[in-house]
């Protein structure tokens, strides 16, 4: 660096080994638009899901159960007595059962590689965008507590497989009517079908899934089945961001649909 370097002190792009550019960044496009839109979208979901998770009501309208409350694990799931639930927690559990359920899908999304990028940029400006320096003085990445815990993502992936399995079961049950006879199809059934397709696509497009399926192999030629599966997962993985958003919206819509029907604001149109 030049001897007359008068850049402000600090780490990252201000270290003496980096080019002596005083401008905070050289981008002239609207680089702030993507992180601002991301933050707004995530915030809207956080507000909606917090309201619904704590509501502890209007989550079951036969034959539909809200994905936020499935499987219902507490005895206080009274309206669901004849629905798909396992009463593992006694009546002492006064808090909304969704709080227990949501730990798993939320943990999966919070530690997801894409969402990490999204909220690091949207909420922490770390960094705000490509080629825009972050305002923080120090950068330790994900090498220290608490961010080092992001490494548990693979385990949340296993839990997410279970969650997707349970939501698939709910979707199959959405083909029954309110008397539990098979052959029903309502608008809710279609909403559930669209949601479960997106949930599976997002879950299987996970980077951890891609590594589990095709990682640690020396020769693809000796593992043709895993190679083929790795190619499929890779194709989905290329759309991971889009699937993350589409499934986030679809799961909120599926819950909202159940809320509308359960609260009596809307009647589920029947096709069969
Ligand atoms: Fe996004 Fe695993 S990397 S879900």
TrEMBL record:
Membrane-traversing stretches: 31-51, 92-115, 155-175, 181-202, 243-262
Keyword Transmembrane helix: yes
Keywords associated with the record: Membrane, Transmembrane, Transmembrane helix
Top-level taxon in the UniProt lineage: Bacteria
Residues in the signal sequence: none
Keyword Zinc: no
Annotated region described as Disordered, given as residue ranges: 1-16
Protein name: Succinate dehydrogenase
Species whose genome carries this gene: Streptomyces coelicoflavus
